[in-house]
Amino acid sequence: MKHYKIAIVGAGPAGYFAAQALQNLQTEELQFSIDAIERLPTPWGLVRSGVAPDHPKIKTVSKVFEKIATAGNFRLFGNVELGTDITLAQLQEKYDAVVIATGSHLGKKLGIPGEDLPGSISAADFVPWYNAHPDFKDFSVLLDCQSAVVIGAGNVAMDVARMLALEPSELDPTDTADHAIEALKKSAIRDVVISARRGPEHAAFTSPELRELPKLVHTNVVMEKGDIQAAIVRAGSEIEKDTKSNLDAMLLISEKEPTNHERTMKFQFLATPVEIKGSGKVEEVVFQKTGSDEKYSIKCGLVITAIGYEAAPLAGIDYDKGKVKNIDGRVKENLYVVGWAKRGPSGVIGTNKSDAADVMKLLVEDLKAPKDAGDINDLLGAHKVITQTHWENINATEISRGEPLGKPRKKAADRNELLSLGGL
Ligand code: NAP
After folding, report:
1. In this structure, how many other beta carbons lie within 10 angstroms of the beta carbon of residue 236?
2. Choice from 58, 120, 156, 205 to test ligand 1 binding pocket (greatest atom count within 8 A of CB)
3. pLDDT tens across 75-127, in order?
4. What is the pLDDT of residues 150-168, one digit of tens each?
5. Domains recognised in the chain with CATH numbers
6. Most Cβ neighbours (<10 Å): which of 166, 321, 339, 400?
7. Separation of 352 CA from ligand 1 center, angstroms?
């Protein structure tokens, strides 16, 4: 029997699915001990810090993660940061293989004048703020204006726009951070424009997300029927199934009887942002009608870009275009990468399952004689490590605090509070 030790860096969906793939590859002859190293005191990655709080069903995948974590050969090392508390070289020395699953969490930039004005932020900051990510608990969002513009035509832009345009009391029965619910209840924002640089036929939204928009009960959702009809003509008859489904969903939205709520979420297409203007803070966004010279501007006090992500560099690893340089997930001798850090920020949570399974197959093929280089705990000494048991304490407390309030959980956003809820 051969017994290998594998380290996975990042306890998000890609990390858990890599662990699951290894668990599935185990036989009597081939055994794995899996250690997940996570910089936050909480695991689950984007399932905790990314998925919109009004989409609780998507978060039920956390049950799968907990099953993987309690299968017997998995240890969580939360509150342990690669590069600070432990180095990549140390992991590579101790483990038979190391898997990078750190995602990509830096917001891509538009690269236009005015982008750094106060009031211009990235979804990469706004989303973790409303999801109680400890690094963003003191982030401040300027919500004292009537209008906001969200740039991008993907599901993140849609999440962000919905969070701004929902009646905030709708967030009470969710696990939205308390600080965000409080701020959104005071928000003056009533008009949110989602802005796409291409036409509806090229939007990156997925149709389930579009189809839920007409169900919003306190928000007007506005799409111009002419925009969608023109896109249907441009798309022609040999249209892809997903594009057709999206356009059908958009046509339904555009044909819906107008509502007269206080809050509006409006889509604009073929609008390329060219400048953000304002004296001392955002006051307007200048757009160019894509494919023409025509310019116009929208007055607003908040701009949120949701135009994709890049991976934050880790020492000792080469990057290319915001991703870890790799061939089919192989990075170098005993180093692998999975998830968004490997393939870029695309796909839904489940996409990581097959992706990680493919990479873990290669990892197993590459394995040599098992190492005997001691335990990671030898390196961490007295460092405060959140183990699975500590995390289960945090999880249980958050859930029980949420119960009387009708929430799935009441999240703690403070790192020290999380450590103490864990029992450290
Ligand atoms: P995305 O789906 O790739 O969308 C990015 C959007 O940004 C595109 O519309 C893109 O337009 C636009 N964009 C890029 N650069 C731009 C620029 N310089 N100026 C203006 N627009 C620009 O990315 P995402 O929304 O960040 O989502 C990431 C992944 O997570 C996606 O696969 C998404 O489906 C998934 N996700 C899923 C859910 C869910 O299932 N509910 C929720 C959130 C996220 P072009 O096409 O013109 O480049």
Report:
1. 8
2. 156
3. 999 999 999 999 999 999 999 999 999 999 999 999 999 999 999 999 999 99
4. 999 999 999 999 999 999 9
5. 2-105+310-386 (3.40.50.720), 109-307 (3.50.50.60)
6. 339
7. 17
